[in-house]
TrEMBL record:
Alphabetized Gene3D superfamilies for the sequence: 3.40.50.20, Hexapeptide repeat proteins
Protein family per UniProt: Belongs to the transferase hexapeptide repeat family.
Transmembrane parts of this sequence: none
Protein name, entry field: Acetyltransferase
InterPro entries reported for this sequence: AcTrfase_PglD-like, Hexapep, Trans_hexapeptide_repeat, Trimer_LpxA-like_sf
Source species, domain of life: Bacteria
Length: 212
């Protein structure tokens, strides 16, 4: 598989490691003028850089793309996926070889399931979902488009995480809870009640906080 990344920071490094031996990374693109995270792969800046590269390459036929935008920027990740898809790139799921994914899990386009993560039976992942390093998604969880489950976070059974939500590192969401669209759950929080759309919660038990 020949692939490009949009995003030139830490998530790009993680994705390349997840694909080691299974894909050839051709180029990295970012909206900022960064140094490439890889000595052997060039970084191009912005839409102009992408267009230049496509002209030199002769188009996107047969190429794949992954969006290396993590954190609480799920809406940005989805928008960039749409833009790359419209240019003809395929948007594969990326599953680290040391992740566990049950055979009946339903996964949307562009999902990323990273090292030592577990996604258990009957879970559903939408488009552009990230299940980060060592995160655990238990049975019957439903994760909406662009949501990000941070490193070491735990979703107990039948949790619903709506589109664009972010679950911080090491957070725990108890069974049957709902995390609303674009909500943020702080690192290490223990969620015992539903979280409203665009809400921010932190602590044990998790309580509402205002955005900084």
């Amino acid at each position: 598989m020949k692939i490009v990344f949009w995003g030139g920071t830490g998530q790009a490094k993680v994705l390349r490691e997840a694909l080691a031996g299974r894909a050839e990374l051709l180029a990295v693109f970012d909206r900022r003028a960064l140094a490439s995270p890889f000595a052997d792969v060039p970084l191009y800046v912005g839409e102009a850089g992408l267009e230049q590269w496509l002209r030199e390459r002769g188009g996107s036929r047969g190429l794949h793309a992954a969006v290396a935008i993590g954190g609480a920027r799920g809406r940005d990740r989805l928008a960039r996926m749409d833009q790359l898809g419209a240019r003809g790139f395929a948007l594969p799921e990326i599953v680290h070889p040391r992740a566990f994914v049950a055979a009946d899990v339903r996964r949307g386009e562009g999902c990323q399931i990273l090292a030592l993560a577990a996604v258990c039976t009957c879970a559903v992942l939408g488009r552009g979902v990230i299940v980060n390093t060592r995160a655990s998604v238990d049975h019957d969880c439903v994760i909406g488009d662009g949501a990000h489950i941070g490193p070491g976070a735990v979703l107990a059974g039948e949790v619903q995480v709506e589109a664009g939500a972010f679950i911080g590192s090491g957070a725990v969401v108890l069974p049957g809870r709902r995390i609303g669209a674009d909500a943020v759950v702080g690192a290490g929080a223990v969620v015992t009640r539903d979280v409203a759309a665009a809400g921010v919660v932190a602590g044990n038990p998790a309580r509402p906080h205002s955005k900084a």
